[in-house]
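Translate sequence into structure tokens.
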Amino acid sequence: MCLRLVEVARFFVYGYTRRNIEGHLIVMIQVAGIILVLWMIGGWDYLPLALVGSILNAAVVAGVGQLPVDLNGLMRSKWKDFFVAFPMRPLEFAVGFSVGASSLRLVGALLLVLILSLVRGLNIIQIIEVLLLLASTWLDMIALGFYMGLRLRDPMGLRRVSDAAVLLLTFFSPVFFPMDFIPMPLKLVALASPTTPAAVLMRNVIGVPDGLDILPIEGYLTLHLFYLILFLLLSVRYARWVEE
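Result follows.
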């Protein structure tokens, strides 16, 4: 199983590196521009918040922004028949394809983690916790993106839903700004976003207390794991096309 998964991931890493590396570089430049603008507006104290938002934004764009659209195109092409011919379980393909398709964006996210570590002077435990939150959020988003790509078959409709999901999960959720900036009634609404607990947890890990007036850290961790399990179950439930 592991060998097949690695081979699928390697196939798509090679394909994306050769085919669309310019697009990934453009996205990284855009992220750098967002960080620069937020730093100029909020000053040096806001830079760690902008970095946290950009790290999570990379996971969201990789999973919900890019993955479902690419998966939809793959389903409409002859590549689907190529993978059907292999003795591969749906979950193996889902993980391998998702890792390969989003690998370059994760490289950018890891670079942002390094910058965040230098800016905040994080110790090894804090760095590991940030990486774990990045990995779990990325897994959360690719599970959601895989589900979207399998359920929404119309390419134009999927593109619109994907773009709207990225906006809702990043710029309309407390990802680039603290949870404490939101008035109390809207804080409860913000908890409906799966990126909210991840962002609050990451800010608290780097030493920026946030959102503890409505939930303790354990509550945000439980909510984060709930969304992760929910989207993984959904993606596994509908990853049936290889077996049909």
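Note: The mean pLDDT is 79.
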